[in-house]
Write a sequence for this structure.
């Protein structure tokens, strides 16, 4: 513009257009590509795919910029004294136009370059994010839980006509169902799985005494037992604080294929048990389901803790069918801590009573007269469906009411999963993983 903005020779401006086209065309191609990468990064962090809102913000800013530029054109011409009605313009008018129409874009572009200087989402990182998103979607499509296992285990098809028999919600509105949940929760439940991680934290982050106490204060009026999953990174504070609040504890040591971390977990668990903070010790959670260690290795851990903590009930938590596949774990355990999830079986919400009944019957046959406790069961309020199991807020409320009515009828202890939604699970399981809480991530009751 500086060199081709020549009074009396407007045709010279035409020669500037190829340069504009190259610059603007390249810029828009690059920015749209960057927007796609930012959408991927946002999905990685939030579990949500939001091209629509990013596109809306992007084009709003573009059009806002055009509007500002158009509005300033008249102001600029007035400032430099340019008058289109005059044959000869005042001294400095053309130079002023050149300064504004060349200098302002240069200044704006320089500021934009400075603002984007630390933008680090390069091609390698974008590919890494895309790979992780693809892996996560594959994991979501094929969860560790196996839909339809119950049918294969009992050796027959489940007759829908016999699967019902639980609560009848047909005459209740969504609001009435939520109100019924609140009433049932106020009357108290046997146990809640404690979700300690607040917004912005990840699984390896250090938990603080203050955040655990804050969440414990929220749930303590509603439960007799607190279940924890680990004994490191601040999780060891959970049973201590639970005992201060006169709660019984099911304390887990997180066992994985990280043998060094396993030693830390076991040592800390034993220390907590000797200090009187444990009522039931759980050596591992779905470790065999994840195929991280062998049955023999797990049994060795269980026997080690039993020897170190005589008088404390010791067991292992896994899906009911993993106990069938690993009978030595039943022999080593004092109690059978089984996870029952009609949702992961792909059950309709109307059939969950039948699923729970058959899971319990199957597990009791395996248990050899040992007590069976449901260490986890729940229903998510959001995410993808698993076969006929649909995650909605109303279905989650129905399941909560169903499972506690069923548990009282069958005299079985239940730990509900979970107390709070935890956003960190989005990065592992997608939106479905972060929607199992009775309270949301902001510690508000969802019902």
């Amino acid at each position: 513009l500086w060199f081709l903005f020549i009074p009396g020779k407007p045709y010279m401006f035409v020669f500037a257009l190829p340069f504009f086209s190259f610059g603007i065309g390249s810029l828009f191609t690059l920015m749209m590509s960057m927007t796609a990468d930012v959408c991927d990064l946002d999905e990685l962090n939030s579990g949500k795919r939001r091209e629509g809102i990013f596109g809306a913000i992007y084009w709003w800013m573009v059009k806002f910029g055009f509007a500002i530029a158009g509005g300033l054109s008249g102001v600029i011409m007035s400032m430099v004294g340019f008058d289109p009605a005059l044959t000869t313009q005042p001294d400095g008018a053309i130079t002023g136009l050149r300064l504004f129409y060349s200098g302002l874009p240069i200044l704006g572009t320089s500021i934009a370059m400075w603002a984007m200087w630390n933008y680090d989402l390069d091609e390698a990182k974008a590919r890494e994010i895309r790979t992780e998103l693809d892996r996560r979607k594959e994991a979501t499509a094929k969860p560790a839980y196996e839909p339809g296992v119950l049918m294969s285990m009992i050796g027959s098809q489940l007759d829908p006509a016999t699967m019902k028999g639980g609560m009848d919600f047909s005459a209740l509105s969504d609001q009435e169902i939520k109100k019924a949940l609140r009433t049932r929760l106020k009357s108290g439940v046997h146990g809640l799985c404690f979700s300690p991680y607040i917004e912005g934290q990840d699984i390896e982050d250090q938990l603080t005494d203050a955040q655990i106490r804050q969440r414990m204060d929220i749930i303590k009026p509603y439960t007799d037992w607190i279940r924890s999953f680990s004994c490191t990174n601040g999780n060891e504070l959970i049973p201590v604080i639970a005992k201060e609040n006169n709660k019984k504890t099911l304390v887990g040591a997180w066992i994985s294929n990280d043998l060094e971390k396993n030693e830390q977990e076991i040592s800390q668990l034993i220390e907590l048990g000797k200090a009187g903070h444990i009522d039931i010790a759980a050596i591992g959670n779905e470790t065999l389901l994840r195929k991280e260690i062998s049955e023999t290795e797990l049994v060795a851990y269980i026997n080690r803790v039993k020897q170190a903590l005589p008088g404390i009930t010791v067991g292992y938590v896994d899906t009911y069918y993993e106990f069938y596949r690993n009978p030595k774990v039943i022999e080593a355990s004092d109690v059978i801590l089984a996870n029952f999830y009609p949702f992961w079986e792909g059950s309709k919400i109307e059939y969950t009573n039948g699923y729970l009944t058959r899971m319990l019957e199957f597990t009791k046959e395996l248990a050899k007269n040992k007590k069976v406790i449901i260490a986890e069961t729940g229903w998510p309020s959001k995410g993808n469906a698993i076969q006929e199991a649909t995650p909605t807020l109303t279905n989650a409320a129905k399941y909560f009411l169903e499972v506690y009515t069923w548990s009282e009828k069958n005299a079985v202890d239940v730990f509900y999963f979970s107390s709070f939604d935890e956003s960190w699970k989005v990065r592992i399981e997608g939106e479905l993983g972060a929607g199992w809480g009775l309270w949301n991530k902001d510690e508000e009751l969802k019902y």
In short: The chain has a mean pLDDT of 91. The longest helix spans residues 17-46. The chain is about 50% helix and 10% strand. The beta strands are 189-193, 223-228, 248-253, 280-285, 313-319, 335-339, 372-377, 414-416.
